[in-house]
Write a structure and sequence with these properties.
about 325 residues; mainly alpha; Rossmann fold; Tyrosyl-Transfer RNA Synthetase; 3-stranded parallel sheet; two-stranded parallel sheet; about 55% helix
Length: about 325
């Protein structure tokens, strides 16, 4: 049965590798809090991962367990959140195919998120059709759970806008507000840069700190962090803007007042980079250590993780199949 007592959230990740600190600050820690106030569905998006990884299905398959383990390790509780495997919910694929009849290729190509991703991947006109149709698939995911809140980065907001366009068109066709519109929940902390400061944190670019990182790996990563190239001596005035160490302190240091004082000292001169890096190293080690330890325990018991995924798939199927049938009946399509 679908509960209506709490707002419904749909969130998740493509299964293309284990998660890292960028995922943690951008979404994971928020999910741990939101599961207490919302009915939360967390999607392991393996079908979407294949849209640009069709030549590497093994990576996508292995990553399902990696990402599920990360979810549990950070504190996503399967008794509070439903963790679903996308490919185990056939209604999502069926709704995607249905929704493609209500959107044009031109509209898909105009989506800013898709345009930027196509350019970033260098597809040119050799775009996998599944990748181009991502907004319709995302709309299927969101509407199948009747989610009203979708936590996304600012770059993904156009996807939610296009989802709501489809919702309005379908509701007009059906003649009533069967599907709710969704609101994008954009985190206050912006996208976390990689330790090199040159791009977003990404495992493929070698600039990420995974949630399984050892204390030594964390210390090494922080030492690599870009600060201010003109801050050659501790006595030199330094620049805070664009300084990756301060970006991380803003994201992770619980003492905002102390960070503000450090920024003032750094701008005046008299504060060395190593002082900042030692502080950040300790903070990140304290955050990652319990996640890493819990992750190790979970990885030693894959059967339990599989049981959680099977239970989540069963709950997810009930919800998404019900929505699919409501849409089919609302559109007055033929059914046996």
């Amino acid at each position: 049965m679908r509960s209506t007592s709490r707002p419904v959230i749909l969130t998740g990740d493509r299964t293309t590798g284990a998660l890292h600190l960028g995922h943690y600050v951008g979404s994971l820690r928020n999910r741990v809090e939101l599961q207490h106030t919302h009915q939360q569905y967390v999607l392991l998006a393996d079908s979407q991962a294949l849209t640009d990884n069709a030549d590497h299905p093994g990576k996508v398959r292995r990553s399902v367990m990696e990402v599920a383990t990360d979810y549990l390790a950070v504190g996503i509780d399967p008794s509070l959140s439903t963790i679903c495997l996308q490919s185990a919910l056939p209604a999502l694929a069926e709704l995607t195919l249905l929704y493609l009849n209500f959107v044009s290729v031109a509209r898909l190509e105009r989506n800013p998120t898709i345009k930027d991703e196509i350019q970033a991947r260098g597809f040119g006109r050799d775009i996998p059709a599944g990748f181009l149709c991502y907004p319709a698939a995302q709309a299927a995911d969101i509407t199948a759970f009747k989610a009203t809140v979708v936590p996304v980065g600012e770059d993904q907001a156009p996807i939610i806008k296009q989802t709501n366009e489809l919702v309005r068109r379908l509701n007009r066709q059906i003649g009533r507000a069967l599907l709710p519109e969704a609101k994008a929940l954009i985190p206050t902390t912006g996208r976390l840069p990689g330790v090199d400061g040159k791009a977003k944190m990404s495992k493929s670019q070698g600039n990420a700190i995974p949630l399984s990182a050892s204390d030594a790996e964390i210390a090494t990563a922080v030492q690599r962090m870009y600060t201010d190239p003109n801050h050659l001596r501790a006595s030199d005035p330094g620049q805070v803007e664009g300084n990756v160490v301060f970006t991380y302190l803003d994201a992770f240091d619980p003492d905002a007042e102390a960070v503000a004082e450090l920024k003032a000292d750094y701008r005046r001169g008299g504060l060395g980079d190593m002082v900042l890096k030692r502080r950040l190293t300790g903070i990140l080690q304290s955050i990652i250590a319990p996640i890493r330890d819990r992750r190790s325990e979970l990885a030693a018991d894959p059967d339990t993780i599989m049981d959680i995924l099977r239970a989540g798939a069963e709950r997810g199927r009930q919800v998404t199949e019900q929505t699919k049938m409501e849409i089919i009946e609302g559109l007055n399509l033929f059914r046996l």
